[in-house]
Specification:
Length: 72
């Protein structure tokens, strides 16, 4: 009888992975490339500038339309 000296459970515990992390588990994926924003994003972020420009344009149109009106 040529039976193995070691039991299957002792072989199973020796085949378990060690507690140290493998080098492949430490690899961090690279950050995604930042998207290029349009050049108008800087101005659209500051809504006060947009509101001021709209108000000035509205007043310019109003003045243009009203300059031909006279009071009698």
């Amino acid at each position: 009888m040529n039976a193995p000296i070691t039991s299957p459970t002792s072989q199973h515990t020796s085949a378990m992975p060690s507690s140290q992390p493998s080098p492949t588990a430490m690899i961090v994926p690279p950050q995604p490339a930042p998207l290029k924003s349009p050049s108008t994003d800087v101005f659209l972020k500051d809504f006060t500038l947009v509101a001021e420009a709209a108000k000035r344009a509205q007043m310019a149109v109003l003045m243009r339309d009203m300059e031909g009106i006279g009071l009698s």
